[in-house]
Amino acid sequence: MTYIIAEPCVDLLDKACIEECPVDCIYEGNRMLYIHPDECVDCGACEPVCPVEAIFYEDDVPEEWSDYTGANYEFFEELGSPGGASKVGKIEKDATFVASRPAKSE
Ligand code: F3S
Ligand code: F3S
Known about the structure:
By secondary structure, the protein is an alpha+beta fold. It has a single domain, classed as Alpha-Beta Plaits. Helix content is 20%, strand content 11%. The strands form two sheets. The protein has a two-stranded antiparallel ribbon. Strands 2-3 form a two-stranded antiparallel sheet. The longest helix has 8 residues. 30% of the residues are buried. It binds FE3-S4 cluster (2 copies). One FE3-S4 cluster (F3S) binds next to helix 1. Keywords: 3Fe-4S, 4Fe-4S, Electron transport, Iron, Iron-sulfur, Metal-binding, Repeat, Transport. Pfam families: Fer4 (PF00037).
């Protein structure tokens, strides 16, 4: 199991979650952040600090945002397991589903 970042993160990228993760497994893409499903240790520390409640335990992702579960897995298909987001930095891509989302306007 893993934690999943969902729709509220898109185009916001608050990044408060990054500070909490003890294993540095929250990676930055173009339009949102993604949690590495193999590197996440399910500690739950990131979930309460997101100001827009975008983070969910995999089993608890709301039905309307279920596509984000696949998106978090897909994001790492080519990357493999880098073993730390801070050394990788921003990754200039998004999962297919996320890239297809309409831009949010303030
Ligand atoms: Fe996104 Fe929330 Fe983290 S908006 S970057 S999941 S703190
Ligand atoms: Fe990291 Fe724990 Fe969240 S391992 S991604 S802070 S559940």
